[in-house]
Amino acid sequence: MRTRKSGRWHTVYSIISTVIEEIAIAALLLWILPAFGVNVPPWVVAAVLACFAVYSYIMYRVGHPTVLYGGVTGAESIVGSKGTAETITQDEAYVRVQGELWKAYYPDGKLKAGDEVIVTSIDGLSLTVRKAS
Predict the structure, then answer these.
(1) 85-106: per-residue pLDDT in tens?
(2) Is 104 helix (H, G, I), strand (E, B) or coil?
(3) Three-class SS of residue 83?
(4) Of 62, 56, 67, which Cα lies nearest the Cα of 14?
(5) pTM of the entire predicted model
(6) Which residues pair with 103 in a beta bridge?
(7) Which residue ranges does the chain devote to CATH 2.40.50.140?
(8) Is residue 97 within 8 Å of residue 80, measured between CB atoms?
(9) In this structure, which topology does domain 75-131 adopt according to CATH?
(10) What is the pLDDT at residue 89?
């Protein structure tokens, strides 16, 4: 079974890769381009490196929460979850479970809008629910 690592490795990797990329950009601008007759002023080198550093920081801030996010599992993980009945007909209802609206069947008993329900099983895109006690 795969365990979730802490986000520390992502931070270390981000710092190391940004430093290596900054060195590569500086080498390109200061040594490789002048070998082909393209001279880049020092202020342009500094601006490019600063812009890349800001870009790397923004991408780190955007990507880091995804590293910490737990795995997403299948629809079967919804079994046992609580929800709220929204729309009720004679033998089926629409219930909101984990923020999503599902078609649901409630074979045992009366159910009315606003009742709290518990998911007992899932079949395709339909849930079977019972009223929470």
Answers:
(1) 998 877 678 999 988 899 998 8
(2) strand
(3) strand
(4) 56
(5) 0.51
(6) 94, 126
(7) 75-131
(8) no
(9) OB fold (Dihydrolipoamide Acetyltransferase, E2P) (2.40.50)
(10) 78
